[in-house]
Design brief:
Elements: H1 2-16, E1 39-46, E2 54-60, E3 69-75, E4 83-89, E5 96-102, E6 112-124, E7 127-130, E8 137-141
Antiparallel strand pairs: 1-2, 2-5, 3-4, 3-6, 6-7, 6-8
Length: 143
């Protein structure tokens, strides 16, 4: 019985060595452009009217050779899970990228403290290759 178990385990291990792996970050993939880290994230709340609130985010734009767009993340606290709230395409020729998160089209933009973060991505036929999220910032929305 022990012999059969050893043979089965050996066959399982040996067959796993032949699996084709498609990791886009393998060293032999030289044509990949990994997105740079996003820097200089700033944000503040703007209340142009009694019922409308905007959270205006801005950050330093990445090199267009390695960035096609950005994911905007939001969380309820620094250490909790971040959810993607929108995607912004990279604007070439502009040093600073911006995004407005508005209560006009998202009812979750209400009074409170929220944490925002941004990451860059590069589009490939197999999907988007995302870089690291930047250091989160807090934005206080007051009544």
């Amino acid at each position: 019985m022990r012999y059969i178990l050893i043979v089965l385990l050996t066959l399982l291990v040996m067959s796993g060595c032949g699996i084709k792996r498609d990791n886009p970050l393998d060293p032999d993939t030289h044509d990949l452009q990994i997105p740079s880290n996003v820097g200089g994230l700033q944000g503040h709340a703007i209340r142009p009217g009694p019922y409308t609130v905007y959270v205006q985010l801005s950050w330093s734009g990445n090199n267009p050779n390695n960035t096609d767009g950005y994911y905007i993340y939001r969380s309820l606290s620094y250490n909790s899970a971040y959810a993607v709230i929108d995607t912004v395409l990279h604007t070439e020729g502009i040093d600073s990228q911006t995004y407005n998160h508005s209560s006009e089209n998202d009812s979750s933009v209400t009074a409170g403290r929220f944490w925002y973060s941004v990451s860059a991505f590069k589009a490939y036929p197999a999907g988007n290759l995302e870089g690291r999220k930047c250091e989160p910032i807090s934005v206080d929305i007051r009544d």
